[in-house]
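Service request form, structural biology core

Requester: graduate student, group of Dr. S.
Request type: structure prediction, single chain
Budget code: on file
Notes: please return the result as structure tokens.

Sequence provided:
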Amino acid sequence: MSKPIDENFSAYLEHLNYEVGLSSHTAVAYRNDVEKFYQFLYEMSKNIEEVDIQTVQEFVVYLSSLCIGSRSINRILSGVISYLRFLAETKVLPIISFDLLDRPKMEKRLPESLGPEEIR
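Core staff response, request fulfilled:
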């Protein structure tokens, strides 16, 4: 079982900070996203080396079951996918195509209508 903080995760954090140049807030968000993913893997008794597209899809379902909104799930997925791509680049995982990942649909917000005073 992989631990939430392992050498791959530490290398990824360094990659975010020094090579990608993300803002500190984005890097912290990505770190939190990946920690959520590792917690999910731990609960599923899976190692990071066993991750495939099905595992990521199960993670989406898991997040939905926690009543997390679709915008937040998609943001979390961005961090996790970034990490998994990093692992593929460093040959820890095979390349995963995320084209078939069923992401939650974003809620559409209706535009605000004008009031009578604004119309005049």
